[in-house]
Write a structure and sequence with these properties.
The chain has 10 helices and 6 strands; from the N terminus they run H-H-H-H-E-E-H-H-H-H-H-E-E-H-E-E. It has 2 domains: about 10-75 and about 160-255, no CATH class; about 80-120, no CATH class. The protein is flat and about 105 Å long. The protein has helices at about 10-15, 20-25, 35-50, 50-65, 120-130, 150-155, 160-165, 170-175, 185-215, 230-235; strands at about 80-90, 105-115, 220, 225, 240-245, 250-255. The protein is α+β, with helices and mostly antiparallel strands and about 260 residues long.
Length: about 260
């Protein structure tokens, strides 16, 4: 909640008023507990525990829990597909009468497909792959966990798709709202943002897997069904949902 809006951190307590914290966080929390001091101490503890260690462990748990495929999905077409429509006349059985030309009963059309290598794209790819220097801390070739140069290069080439996910961190509305006293807390906040992004993408992955596996479309913008749902698109569907708590009982209402 604190990472998908333009609410400054020092107004987090105010942002949570009127929200069902138990529904969002899993445990009931009073908004006054989300003040500057408590939030700062929580960030200090995250830094002391090691932000890289926490994120790496949670990422590995997510890969195992959701059975994520971490293989290479980069694809570039290196072929041209040529098609040609040709006539295929169909005749009646038997020979034509003497002195008469054989006439087709009807004409059918066939599509001939030819796949050819695209020389221009292949040559360009050869030039791009001719020389590429990578400096890495991955174990050397003789180590049991060593990576091949090709695998490292493929991983490096795929980082552009990952970096696009962090564009929101350059948003002035996000950067200008960060007021922290310690550099350690800035790093801890970075961990919180990374975990938020991880959760956001896992939600989006599950939505797309549902569409792929069931063939059912999901509601998108302007009440239209879509085969490419996004996490933000789905969150808007819950804006009209109210949760009323009476004692230990909770009831869902739709406006």
């Amino acid at each position: 909640m604190c990472c998908n809006s333009e609410t400054p951190l020092y107004r987090l307590e105010e942002a949570f008023k009127g929200l069902d914290s138990e529904l969002i966080l899993g445990v009931p929390i009073s908004p006054d507990q989300l003040n500057d001091n408590n939030l700062g101490r929580a960030m200090d503890k995250l830094f002391e525990a090691g932000t890289n260690k926490i994120f790496s462990q949670i990422s590995q748990n997510a890969i195992g829990c959701f059975k994520l495929d971490t293989g290479n999905h980069h694809f570039k077409s290196l072929h041209k597909i040529k098609t040609e429509v040709v006539e295929a006349p169909k005749y009646d059985r038997g020979r034509p009468q003497k002195g008469k030309e054989r006439q087709p009963k009807h004409i059918e059309y066939e599509v001939n497909v030819t796949i050819e290598e695209d020389p221009a794209k292949v040559e360009k790819l050869r030039l791009e792959a001719g020389c590429f220097v990578l400096i890495t801390n991955v174990p050397a070739q003789d180590h049991e966990k060593a990576w091949t140069g090709e695998k490292l290069l493929r991983l490096y080439k795929e980082q552009d798709g990952i970096e696009k996910n962090f564009g929101f961190l350059k948003d002035p509305a996000i950067v200008n709202a960060i007021f922290l006293k310690k550099t350690e807390r800035v790093e801890a906040l970075g961990l919180i943002l990374l975990l938020s992004l991880l959760l956001w993408r896992l939600v989006e992955r599950d939505l797309n897997l549902y569409v792929k596996n069931t063939g059912n479309l999901l509601p998108g913008w302007d009440k239209r069904m879509t085969k490419s749902p996004t996490a933000f698109m789905m969150t808007t569907k819950f804006l009209n949902v109210l949760v009323i708590t009476a004692g230990k009982q909770r009831h869902w209402l739709s406006r």
